[in-house]
TrEMBL record:
Gene Ontology biological-process entries: NAD+ metabolic process; NADP+ biosynthetic process
Cell location: Cytoplasm
Cofactor(s) needed for function: a divalent metal cation
Catalytic activity: NAD(+) + ATP = ADP + NADP(+) + H(+)
Entry's Gene Ontology cellular component terms: cytoplasm
Residues bound to NAD(+): D77, G78, N150, E151, D180, T191, G192, Y193, S194, L195, S196
UniProt-listed Enzyme Commission number(s): 2.7.1.23
Pfam family, one: NAD_kinase
Primary residence: cytoplasm
UniProt entry keywords in alphabetical sequence: ATP-binding, Cytoplasm, Kinase, NAD, NADP, Nucleotide-binding, Transferase
Species name: Marivirga tractuosa (strain ATCC 23168 / DSM 4126 / NBRC 15989 / NCIMB 1408 / VKM B-1430 / H-43) (Microscilla tractuosa)
Function comment: Involved in the regulation of the intracellular balance of NAD and NADP, and is a key enzyme in the biosynthesis of NADP. Catalyzes specifically the phosphorylation on 2'-hydroxyl of the adenosine moiety of NAD to yield NADP.
Protein name: NAD kinase
Length: 295
């Protein structure tokens, strides 16, 4: 007999409103004779909510030896970004079930859970490979996870004045951004933090980065799109010697002596999609395009 499909589950703390939807996922997978493995971060809440399903293995980062076929993210986009970190270079396909709010990445709605899981187990899906951004530093700030699906952000600390981020593209001086910070976003991340700072929406497979200042002091400074074949490097100055560097949901405090550069990652995030929804559908729905409140 073939081995059962092995599925990793990752989620966050959830409320009573979300619990029935997570139970639907677990019940369906159990009835389908799949093997489940649950992230350590999710395991405690999972055990409390579903004591009948307490006999499962846990993981902190997926290993090749785990032989996981899919990872299912139960939550919003933030949960899916964490799932990308669990998968890393294994490129295990990720299905995002949206029990959160916006859902640009976790696009499967709660009322389509049964259909999505059926299509998943019957291999009736497509893989949407998304480029990652990779951070290189001289101090290994992010350890074994120096990558992000959405963006790198260099930010001032909460109480400090503006910072200056001297920015170079392939070694050539670009600009000194006097601002609260600077974002380098992937096309996937162009609908996240970068968008809220006035950056453009970039289609997922455009092979670009967008450099977006955060609250720039000079009003004529605008977001800039560059090729993702470029290496973008930085030098940081400010009255405070401490700055915040983040890769999606991961963040660390650094000082101005750090050497940093970003480039396109060596591997990708593989998101599971279905025929009934495409990227333009998601844009229209999440951004309410075409809706007129006067009607």
């Amino acid at each position: 007999m073939p081995n059962p499909v092995k599925i990793a589950l990752h989620g966050k703390v959830f409320n009573d409103e979300v619990k029935p939807h997570i139970k639907k996922v677990v019940d369906y997978l159990e009835a389908s004779n799949t093997e489940l493995i649950v992230s350590q971060l999710f395991a405690k809440k999972f055990k409390e909510a579903f004591p009948q399903y307490s006999n499962f293995d846990q993981f902190n980062k997926l290993q090749a030896s785990d032989n996981v076929d899919y990872l299912i993210s139960l939550g919003g986009d933030g949960t899916l970004l964490e799932a990308v970190n669990y998968v890393g270079e294994l490129e295990t396909p990720i299905l995002g079930i949206n029990t959160g709010r916006l859902g640009f990445l976790a696009t499967t709605p709660k009322d389509k859970i049964d259909k999505a899981l059926s299509d998943l187990l019957n291999k009736n899906y497509k893989i949407d490979s998304r480029a990652l951004i990779h951070l290189e530093t001289d101090s290994k700030v992010f350890g074994e996870k120096p990558f992000a699906l959405n963006e790198l952000a260099i930010l001032k600390t909460d109480s400090s004045s503006m910072i200056t981020v001297h920015t170079y593209v392939d070694g050539e001086y670009l600009n000194s951004y006097w601002a609260d910070g600077l974002i380098v976003a992937t096309p996937t991340g162009s609908t996240g933090y970068s968008l809220s700072c006035g950056g453009p929406i970039i289609l997922p497979h455009s092979n670009n980065f967008v450099i977006t200042p955060v609250s720039a002091h000079n009003l004529n400074v605008r977001p800039l799109i560059v090729s993702d074949q470029s290496v973008i490097s930085f030098k940081i100055e400010g009255r405070s010697n401490k700055f915040l560097v983040s890769l999606d949901s991961k963040s660390h405090s650094v000082d101005s002596s750090i050497k940093m550069s970003v480039r396109k990652g060596d591997f990708k995030a593989k998101l599971i999609t279905f025929d009934q929804l495409n990227y333009f559908d998601t844009l229209r729905q999440k951004l309410n395009w075409g809706l007129d409140l006067r009607n």
